[in-house]
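Residues pack. One example:


***
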Amino acid sequence: MKLKRSLALCLILALAVSLAACSSKEGAVYVQSVEELSKVGGIAPGDRFAGMVVSENVTEIQKDSDKTIEELYVKSGDDVKAGDKLFSYDVEELQLTLDKQRLEKEQLEASIENYKSQIEELEKQYKRAGTRDKLQYAVQIQTNQVDQKEAELNLKTKEAEVKKSEELLENATVVSPVDGRIQEISENGTDNYGNPLPYITIQQAGAYRVKGVLGELQRGGIVEGDRIRILSRVDANKVWMGTVTLVDYENPTQGNGKNDFSYSSSDEMTSGSRYPFYVELDTSEGLLLGQHMYLELDTGDGETTGLSISGAFIAYDDDGTTYVWAENGRKLEKRTVTLGEYNMMQDTYEILEGLTGEDFIAFPDPESCAPGVPTTHTETVTQESGVD
């Protein structure tokens, strides 16, 4: 996952750097927004995602496809306790099915006894028969023995069916095996791609995690191992921390349907694929199953700017001082910056001091960057057409 994000980021940064290095307008140096450079990875500082507290454990309740549901007692979103009724089968239909199966079982038992009697009689006749007739009796005996074996196998199958129907009749009402919340009820039994689904899915109460969703253009912006801040929607002072344990690119959802609770403060995705990601909580104390939360990438201890830019924009003096070429009043200035953590996978530095998201900086080209050089926010790239 991190490798994919790194490769994509490198391509974007390469394009940005090439444009920055070769773009100028009438001697002015092209400068770029620090905020835009900081969000190259798809997630900008301060972006928030809507999340929901879900259970780490899910219980799936299957239904017998050969039976008819008489009554459904729950709906999506309901909280249930172990032993609460979920649905019941049609008892009248179950009883008719059981009666039929019992009759078929009795017929098979009778057939087996009949075969045994015939074989016993044929064996007696075989002993009294002459040499010429023994072969005929032997064939009849073998035929009856095969039929008897087949009937015995069918009887075992029928006995299993009878037992299952008896259990269903005794337990015609299906109850929840766990405490939790009804996550989904699948009436047709399949998803949009025809894959089988459980009839009822229950999010178990207990160990919680938080689910968020990434848009298509945000792919790679969050990866496994990222630290996430989880904020209460109603009390800004309540904050939980967690770690991304899964970004599920294998099971995307489409569009922004009514059940899609995800967005970010710069959400450019109003349609297209969305990818769920899951955050393992450091502690779930005070959280409730199904509670809606805000999610954002953790930027550290709160004393940083939350900005990270490509190392390509960082320059160094002989004494090791780090600086950038920043715009100040439409002119370049050499501005010292304090660097924080370095991200080797993305080749980015966290900016602790010296820049804000509102600043603009230039690629440190020694041939064009100098104090006082005019700046421009418009990039122009000249290309030789090769035509005289």
Observations:
- The chain has a mean pLDDT of 81.
- The first strand starts at residue 24 and ends at 25.
